[in-house]
What we know:
Blueprint: E1 3-7, H1 13-24, E2 30-34, H2 39-47, E3 50-58, E4 61-62, H3 64-72, E5 77-84, H4 90-101, E6 109-117, H5 122-130, H6 136-149, H7 155-172
Parallel strand pairs: 1-2, 1-3, 3-5, 5-6
Antiparallel strand pairs: 3-4
Amino acid sequence: MKYAVVYSSRTGNTALLAQALKKALPESDCLYFGSPASDTAAEAAERADLIFTGFWTDKGDCAGDISGFLEKLRNKNIFLFGTAGFGGEPAYFDRIVQRVRQHTDASDTVVGSYMCQGKMPLSVRQRYESQLAQNPERTQQLLDNFDAAQSHPDEQDAEKLVRLAAGYIRQLQ
Length: 173
Protein backbone atom coordinates (compact mmCIF):
# COMPACT_ATOMS: atom_id res chain seq x y z
CA MET A 1 0.00 0.00 0.00
CA LYS A 2 1.49 3.31 -1.09
CA TYR A 3 1.17 6.23 1.29
CA ALA A 4 2.18 9.86 1.73
CA VAL A 5 2.83 11.79 4.94
CA VAL A 6 1.92 15.43 4.41
CA TYR A 7 2.18 17.68 7.43
CA SER A 8 2.55 21.20 8.73
CA SER A 9 4.31 21.90 12.01
CA ARG A 10 4.76 25.33 13.52
CA THR A 11 6.54 24.36 16.75
CA GLY A 12 7.89 20.90 15.88
CA ASN A 13 5.17 18.93 17.67
CA THR A 14 3.43 17.63 14.56
CA ALA A 15 6.81 17.04 12.90
CA LEU A 16 7.72 14.75 15.80
CA LEU A 17 4.59 12.66 15.16
CA ALA A 18 5.24 12.64 11.40
CA GLN A 19 8.78 11.39 12.02
CA ALA A 20 7.39 8.58 14.18
CA LEU A 21 5.19 7.49 11.27
CA LYS A 22 8.11 7.68 8.86
CA LYS A 23 10.27 5.56 11.14
CA ALA A 24 7.59 2.91 11.73
CA LEU A 25 6.02 2.50 8.29
CA PRO A 26 7.68 0.74 5.33
CA GLU A 27 9.97 3.28 3.66
CA SER A 28 9.61 1.58 0.27
CA ASP A 29 5.86 2.37 0.26
CA CYS A 30 6.30 6.07 1.08
CA LEU A 31 5.64 8.29 -1.94
CA TYR A 32 6.16 11.59 -0.12
CA PHE A 33 7.12 12.96 3.28
CA GLY A 34 6.94 16.68 3.96
CA SER A 35 5.13 19.96 3.56
CA PRO A 36 1.86 20.43 1.68
CA ALA A 37 3.41 23.44 -0.11
CA SER A 38 5.47 21.28 -2.47
CA ASP A 39 4.16 20.36 -5.93
CA THR A 40 5.51 16.90 -5.17
CA ALA A 41 3.02 16.60 -2.29
CA ALA A 42 0.05 17.00 -4.62
CA GLU A 43 1.51 14.58 -7.17
CA ALA A 44 2.24 11.96 -4.51
CA ALA A 45 -1.20 12.39 -2.95
CA GLU A 46 -2.76 11.64 -6.32
CA ARG A 47 -0.94 8.28 -6.44
CA ALA A 48 -1.18 7.35 -2.75
CA ASP A 49 -3.60 4.78 -1.38
CA LEU A 50 -3.55 6.53 2.00
CA ILE A 51 -2.57 10.06 2.94
CA PHE A 52 -1.47 10.74 6.50
CA THR A 53 -2.20 14.43 6.98
CA GLY A 54 -0.71 16.14 10.02
CA PHE A 55 -1.57 19.56 11.36
CA TRP A 56 -1.04 21.94 14.23
CA THR A 57 -4.12 23.55 15.74
CA ASP A 58 -4.78 27.18 14.91
CA LYS A 59 -7.84 28.63 16.66
CA GLY A 60 -9.56 25.25 16.83
CA ASP A 61 -8.81 24.23 13.23
CA CYS A 62 -5.85 23.28 11.07
CA ALA A 63 -3.69 26.00 9.54
CA GLY A 64 -4.37 27.25 6.03
CA ASP A 65 -1.68 25.21 4.29
CA ILE A 66 -3.27 21.95 5.42
CA SER A 67 -6.86 23.08 4.84
CA GLY A 68 -5.89 24.10 1.29
CA PHE A 69 -4.20 20.75 0.70
CA LEU A 70 -7.19 18.78 2.00
CA GLU A 71 -9.66 20.82 -0.06
CA LYS A 72 -7.93 19.74 -3.29
CA LEU A 73 -8.08 15.99 -2.60
CA ARG A 74 -10.68 13.80 -4.27
CA ASN A 75 -11.52 10.12 -3.76
CA LYS A 76 -8.76 9.63 -1.20
CA ASN A 77 -8.31 7.71 2.04
CA ILE A 78 -7.08 10.18 4.64
CA PHE A 79 -5.79 9.67 8.17
CA LEU A 80 -5.69 12.93 10.14
CA PHE A 81 -3.24 13.52 12.97
CA GLY A 82 -2.58 16.67 14.89
CA THR A 83 -1.42 18.45 17.99
CA ALA A 84 -3.02 21.15 20.12
CA GLY A 85 -1.56 23.13 22.99
CA PHE A 86 -4.70 22.86 25.03
CA GLY A 87 -5.38 19.26 25.91
CA GLY A 88 -6.72 16.82 28.38
CA GLU A 89 -10.25 16.52 27.04
CA PRO A 90 -11.05 14.08 24.24
CA ALA A 91 -14.15 16.14 23.41
CA TYR A 92 -11.94 19.14 22.61
CA PHE A 93 -9.79 17.05 20.29
CA ASP A 94 -12.93 15.61 18.66
CA ARG A 95 -14.20 19.12 17.90
CA ILE A 96 -10.90 20.01 16.26
CA VAL A 97 -10.95 16.88 14.11
CA GLN A 98 -14.54 17.62 13.08
CA ARG A 99 -13.51 21.10 11.94
CA VAL A 100 -10.54 19.72 10.01
CA ARG A 101 -12.75 17.08 8.37
CA GLN A 102 -14.88 19.89 6.96
CA HIS A 103 -11.97 20.68 4.64
CA THR A 104 -12.25 17.27 2.97
CA ASP A 105 -14.42 16.53 -0.03
CA ALA A 106 -17.47 14.26 0.20
CA SER A 107 -15.65 11.83 -2.12
CA ASP A 108 -12.82 11.39 0.42
CA THR A 109 -12.85 8.90 3.28
CA VAL A 110 -11.32 9.90 6.59
CA VAL A 111 -10.29 6.45 7.77
CA GLY A 112 -9.08 7.60 11.17
CA SER A 113 -7.65 10.36 13.27
CA TYR A 114 -5.37 10.99 16.20
CA MET A 115 -4.83 14.09 18.33
CA CYS A 116 -2.56 14.74 21.26
CA GLN A 117 -1.37 17.66 23.28
CA GLY A 118 1.72 19.56 22.17
CA LYS A 119 4.04 21.93 23.93
CA MET A 120 3.62 25.66 23.38
CA PRO A 121 6.18 28.44 23.06
CA LEU A 122 7.29 30.26 26.21
CA SER A 123 5.65 33.44 24.88
CA VAL A 124 2.26 31.81 25.51
CA ARG A 125 3.10 31.24 29.17
CA GLN A 126 4.31 34.83 29.47
CA ARG A 127 1.02 36.07 28.01
CA TYR A 128 -0.91 33.97 30.53
CA GLU A 129 1.22 35.29 33.39
CA SER A 130 0.43 38.87 32.37
CA GLN A 131 -3.31 38.05 32.67
CA LEU A 132 -3.06 36.42 36.09
CA ALA A 133 -4.25 39.46 38.08
CA GLN A 134 -7.36 39.99 35.93
CA ASN A 135 -8.75 36.45 36.16
CA PRO A 136 -6.66 34.38 38.59
CA GLU A 137 -8.70 31.17 38.57
CA ARG A 138 -9.06 30.85 34.79
CA THR A 139 -5.50 31.98 34.14
CA GLN A 140 -4.11 29.48 36.65
CA GLN A 141 -5.90 26.72 34.73
CA LEU A 142 -4.24 27.94 31.54
CA LEU A 143 -0.84 28.01 33.25
CA ASP A 144 -1.36 24.49 34.60
CA ASN A 145 -2.30 23.29 31.11
CA PHE A 146 0.77 25.01 29.65
CA ASP A 147 3.02 23.24 32.16
CA ALA A 148 1.37 19.86 31.50
CA ALA A 149 1.82 20.31 27.75
CA GLN A 150 5.59 20.79 27.95
CA SER A 151 6.34 17.06 27.81
CA HIS A 152 4.13 16.42 24.76
CA PRO A 153 4.08 14.92 22.34
CA ASP A 154 6.00 12.21 24.15
CA GLU A 155 7.00 8.68 23.20
CA GLN A 156 3.62 7.29 24.29
CA ASP A 157 1.80 9.82 22.08
CA ALA A 158 3.92 8.78 19.09
CA GLU A 159 3.41 5.07 19.83
CA LYS A 160 -0.38 5.52 19.96
CA LEU A 161 -0.33 7.23 16.57
CA VAL A 162 1.83 4.52 15.03
CA ARG A 163 -0.43 1.74 16.41
CA LEU A 164 -3.54 3.43 15.02
CA ALA A 165 -1.92 4.10 11.65
CA ALA A 166 -0.68 0.52 11.31
CA GLY A 167 -4.17 -0.75 12.11
CA TYR A 168 -5.75 1.35 9.38
CA ILE A 169 -3.14 0.24 6.87
CA ARG A 170 -3.98 -3.40 7.66
CA GLN A 171 -7.70 -2.67 7.20
CA LEU A 172 -7.17 -1.03 3.82
CA GLN A 173 -4.94 -3.76 2.41
